[in-house]
């Protein structure tokens, strides 16, 4: 049901995400979603946790600090998994008003930063924890920019070109620009 909630949220926004709408999207009997998720907050938290699970699996499939692999992941998120990313940002904004959702978001964000930290630390990058947090923040900004349509639509090559300086800053010792400062 959380997969149906993701699609509903991406296509209809927070106002359109109701138990009944998820029942319809999941093609289950009316009342099924509310049976498993008694409150709207429970549904939102479970949806955030499902998004984190899916993104964690995507990120875990990227080995090392390969720019091409990360570019492919971002391209995937902006094309084939676009609904997931839109739903993620919808929930991220909603988390500013809901403590339980905020806790789920904080947990998921911590996982992503920890994964990036491990990759950078394994690559021998000094100050890997700070650089990883900044790299994740920059990637999130790039994703949001593309999903919200705030910037020009980027091809896969454009995404790689946008990521290259972030990777160089994160991976190069002594580098003090965007991904290395904070």
From TrEMBL:
Q: Which GO molecular function entries does the Swiss-Prot or TrEMBL record give?
A: DNA binding
Q: Does the keyword DNA-binding apply?
A: yes
Keywords recorded for this protein, A-Z: DNA-binding
Occurrences of domain HTH tetR-type (ranges): 1-55
Asked whether the UniProt record includes DNA-binding among its keywords, one would answer yes
Q: Which residues bind DNA?
A: 18-37
* Domain of life from the UniProt record: Bacteria
Write the protein's name: TetR family transcriptional regulator
């Amino acid at each position: 049901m959380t997969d149906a909630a993701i699609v509903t949220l991406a296509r209809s926004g927070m106002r359109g995400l109701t138990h009944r709408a998820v029942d319809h999207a999941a093609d289950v009997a009316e009342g099924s979603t509310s049976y498993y998720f008694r409150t709207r907050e429970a549904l939102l938290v479970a949806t955030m946790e499902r998004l984190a699970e899916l993104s964690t699996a995507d990120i875990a499939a990227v080995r090392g600090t390969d720019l091409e692999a990360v570019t492919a992941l971002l391209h995937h998120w902006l094309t084939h998994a676009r609904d997931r990313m839109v739903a993620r940002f919808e929930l991220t904004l909603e988390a500013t008003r809901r403590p339980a959702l905020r806790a789920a978001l904080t947990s998921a964000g911590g996982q992503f930063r920890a994964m990036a930290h491990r990759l950078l630390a394994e690559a021998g990058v000094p100050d890997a924890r700070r650089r990883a947090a900044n790299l994740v923040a920059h990637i999130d900004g790039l994703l949001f920019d593309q999903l919200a349509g705030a910037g020009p639509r980027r091809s896969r090559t454009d995404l790689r070109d946008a990521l290259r300086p972030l990777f160089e800053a994160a991976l190069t010792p002594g580098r003090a620009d965007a991904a290395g400062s904070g």
